[in-house]
């Protein structure tokens, strides 16, 4: 009996297809049903193995099920089995029907009843065609790695081997079933062999290339695999990627060309620079001013150009020079790769050096910091606390000794410590001439001008005037205050590490701080309670928007649903005053004296931290009013040209400013629309290019892991709740009460969510000292800030999450 049930199932006939070995390699003839494809590949593969198996049609089973049960038991000798679907409508040219039909794994091959039940279960998931097949295979044992490998990116068709794998469970169905922990790695087709550091990844890529050669190089494939402890790779399924019909047929060429240009740019950027310490650089999305948190990973040109103009072109370095850090002449902080914002980490690290060090000392320090980050990429959002040394905190000596032994000679280390100590002493000074006091005064001048201009209404200034004033009186002093907040956080954390403060006491101090968030939530409650007029609330807070730099993100005063949650009250906040105990005062005073911070005592340190942290949040609140008004000026100007907010977001602010200040030309509208269309086309290619959070060198451009970040937990509370995902343009306000809100980037414009009595917060990006971390600490809300791409998506997909901040656990739960 052959596969349709007509002859005795011999070794070849029982597996169906009979002529697989005679088929020509390199043609699509290899592909058929799931069972037929594997049968045809089995004798052709050299680098991998197809598990032993046989298949038969539903019609053959109906004609003689007892015969097939006996044949299965004879063939496999009672071994554990995989009984899998192989329907005719599966793995087709236009649709894969992936996951539509049942498969049974680990079936006891010695139990005839279990075999029969498994086959019937698979057949029951079909639509009733007698031509559908059932595939029975020997289970692959001792699996250490399993998953799915796509020979092209599923969404765009970009030329990447995308490997989604599980190396923890020992099962073969965790990735395909969408459960458990899994990881993702993308390898560009043009990746050099030396770029793949993992032997097991190299083996999978070689398997994929061999299967491609047999099925036809131009045919995108989906390959299910398992790797055993002895190093063998088993091919469990091969099928076409049906989604390829919607791909841009030139995307592979465009992505490859873009990647080569990026590679040249990164090499040039990483070359030694005369005025900059360090022999190379690293590009990262989250170090320092963390653009991924503020802008997102794929911001539009308007948002990116505004961030450059206001912060990362020169404001960032000017603020640090004012505080006593090293000058970084003429250097920008942020660059763009395929439309994604990255921080030049070498430039950032240079700006963390105290002024006056010998150049050789600077070089060795910066290179040591870069080496540590390169070796520990999970620290990409914690560089100020776990990589670079930016302040003379109470753990300075231990950190230098443990992280960077031998980098500096004894005399060099003494000089470095002395300069960093002097810088820190100046920072912590609360005198009227200190940089914190002067920056705070600038912010108050800007707030006064805003009040004088009309209490929250867009001012009469033109765009360029708004942005100029925003930078001078807003983002520059904000950058100073933000750096002070990092200094304060480093000192307090190191005090906890040295046991001068208990962790819960530091949490209590943070909970005692009153920032914009607490005032906003109190005022929102007053509106709901009828004691504050909505228009008064909007005059105070109406300029805020969830995407601070995103023109298409609605301001609070443009949201029709802002007060729609009537009856939903924000959680009442108990804010007891924080007072240091005598033992804490003595311990902190001892640490301050040991660190050489003369003239600073424990209570001064706490006053400094309070002013820096609350001042940072207030400064952000103030300067974003100017920024928000500038965005509205752009929107009004665009409306006169019949350009929508979405269309305007594709232009750079410099292009808009030039149009606003220059005489009109007859073809201006046509020129701008052509420019917008060009940017959209470029963005399509940019989205198809795969890049990680860190780019250390060329190999990170061609072999790209989906990094798993270490979450930053806030509070020690635990909660289990449904999740709700929001983005900067979400209008949804219902269903948030007692839910855990998931947002991609922790922009403080999301403050409105704290008025909805949410149960917790999870963000994809964000650092330990980010705005949202401070806000959650202030109101005692459990949060996991910066959980990373994979965990974030798993939490959202699960629909429910266990968030236990005390145990440092974020666990997706099926809703």
Describe the protein:
The protein is an alpha+beta fold and 815 residues long. The strands form four sheets. A seven-stranded mixed sheet has the order 15-19-18-17-16-20-21, sandwiched between helices. The protein has a six-stranded antiparallel sheet with strand order 9-8-5-6-7-14. Helix 8 (315-323) crosses helix 15 (463-497) and helix 15 (463-497) packs antiparallel against helix 20 (602-640).
By secondary-structure content and strand pairing, the structural class works out as alpha+beta
Fraction of residues in helix: 40-55%
Intertermini distance: 48 Å
| Coarse morphology | globular
Q: Report the sheet-strand fraction.
A: 5-15%
Instruction: List the quaternary state of the chains.
Output: single chain
* SS elements, strand count: 21
Q: Features of this protein?
A:
815 residues, alpha+beta, seven-stranded mixed sheet, 21 strands, 43% helix, disordered N terminus
């Amino acid at each position: 009996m052959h596969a349709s049930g007509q002859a005795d199932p011999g070794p070849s006939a029982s597996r169906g297809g009979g002529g697989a070995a005679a088929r020509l390699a390199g043609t699509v003839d290899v592909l058929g049903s799931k069972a037929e494809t594997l049968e045809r590949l089995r004798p052709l593969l050299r680098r991998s193995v197809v598990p032993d198996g046989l298949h038969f049609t539903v019609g053959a089973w109906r004609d003689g099920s007892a015969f097939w049960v006996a044949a299965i038991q004879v063939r496999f000798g009672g071994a554990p089995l995989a009984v899998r679907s192989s329907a005719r409508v599966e793995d087709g040219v236009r649709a894969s029907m992936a996951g539509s039909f049942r498969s049974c794994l680990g079936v006891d091959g010695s139990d005839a009843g279990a075999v029969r039940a498994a086959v019937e279960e698979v057949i029951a998931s079909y639509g009733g065609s007698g031509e559908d097949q059932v595939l029975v295979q020997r289970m692959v044992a001792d699996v250490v790695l399993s998953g799915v490998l796509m020979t092209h990116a599923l969404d765009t068709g970009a030329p990447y081997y995308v490997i989604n794998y599980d190396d923890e469970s020992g099962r073969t169905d965790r990735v395909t079933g969408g459960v458990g922990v899994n990881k993702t790695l993308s390898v560009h087709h043009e990746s050099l062999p030396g770029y793949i550091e993992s032997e097991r990844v190299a083996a999978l890529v070689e398997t994929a290339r061999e299967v491609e050669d047999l099925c036809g190089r131009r045919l995108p494939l989906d390959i299910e695999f398992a790797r055993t402890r002895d190093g063998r790779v088993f091919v469990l399924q091969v099928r076409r990627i049906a989604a390829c019909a919607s791909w841009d047929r030139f995307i592979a060429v465009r992505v490859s060309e873009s990647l080569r240009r990026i590679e040249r740019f990164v090499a040039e950027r990483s070359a030694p620079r005369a005025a900059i310490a360090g022999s190379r650089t690293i590009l990262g999305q989250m170090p320092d001013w963390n653009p991924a948190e503020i802008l997102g990973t794929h911001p539009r040109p308007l948002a990116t150009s505004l961030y450059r103009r206001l912060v990362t072109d020169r404001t960032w370095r000017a603020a640090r020079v004012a505080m006593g850090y090293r000058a970084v002449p003429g250097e920008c902080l942020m660059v763009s790769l395929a439309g994604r914002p990255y921080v030049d980490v070498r430039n950032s690290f240079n700006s963390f050096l105290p002024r006056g060090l010998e150049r050789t000392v600077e070089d060795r320090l910066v290179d040591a910091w870069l080496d540590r980050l390169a070796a520990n990429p999970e620290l990409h959002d914690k560089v100020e606390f776990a990589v670079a040394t930016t302040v003379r905190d109470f753990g300075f000596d231990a950190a230098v000794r443990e992280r960077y032994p031998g980098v500096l000679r004894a005399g060099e280390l003494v000089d470095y410590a002395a300069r960093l100590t002097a810088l820190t002493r100046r920072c912590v000074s609360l005198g009227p001439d200190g940089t914190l006091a002067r920056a705070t005064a600038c912010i108050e001048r800007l707030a006064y001008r805003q009040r004088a201009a009309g209490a929250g209404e867009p001012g009469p200034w033109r765009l360029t005037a708004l942005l100029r004033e925003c930078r001078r009186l807003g983002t520059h002093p904000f950058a100073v205050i933000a750096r002070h907040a990092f200094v304060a956080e480093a000192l307090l954390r190191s005090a906890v590490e040295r046991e001068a403060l208990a962790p819960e006491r530091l949490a209590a101090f943070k909970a005692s701080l009153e920032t914009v968030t607490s005032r906003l939530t109190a005022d929102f409650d007053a509106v709901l309670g009828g004691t504050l007029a909505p228009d008064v609330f909007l005059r105070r807070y109406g300029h805020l928007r969830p995407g601070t730099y995103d023109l298409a993100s609605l301001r609070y005063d443009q949201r029709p649903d802002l007060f729609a949650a009537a009856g939903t009250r924000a959680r009442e906040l108990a804010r007891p005053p924080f007072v240091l105990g005598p033992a804490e005062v003595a311990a902190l005073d001892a640490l301050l004296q040991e660190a050489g911070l003369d003239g600073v005592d424990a209570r001064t340190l706490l006053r400094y931290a309070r002013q820096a942290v609350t001042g940072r949040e207030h400064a952000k609140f103030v300067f974003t009013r100017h920024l928000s008004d500038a965005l509205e000026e752009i929107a009004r100007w665009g409306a006169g040209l019949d350009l929508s907010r979405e269309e305007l977001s594709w232009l750079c602010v410099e292009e808009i400013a030039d149009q606003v200040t220059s005489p009109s030309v007859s073809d201006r509208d046509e020129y701008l629309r052509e420019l917008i269309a060009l940017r959209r086309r470029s963005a399509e290619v940019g989205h198809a290019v795969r890049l990680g959070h860190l780019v250390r060198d060329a190999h990170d451009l061609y072999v790209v892991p989906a990094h798993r970040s270490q979450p930053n937990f806030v509070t020690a509370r635990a909660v289990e709740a449904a999740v709700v995902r929001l983005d900067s343009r979400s209008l949804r306000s219902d269903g948030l009460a007692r839910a855990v809100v998931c947002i991609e980037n922790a922009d403080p414009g999301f403050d409105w969510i704290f008025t909805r009595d949410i149960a917790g917060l999870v963000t994809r990006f964000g650092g330990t000292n980010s705005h949202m971390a401070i806000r959650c600490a202030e109101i005692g809300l459990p949060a996991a800030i910066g959980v990373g791409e994979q965990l974030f998506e798993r939490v959202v997909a699960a629909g429910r999450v266990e968030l236990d901040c005390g145990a440092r656990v974020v666990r997706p739960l099926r809703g």
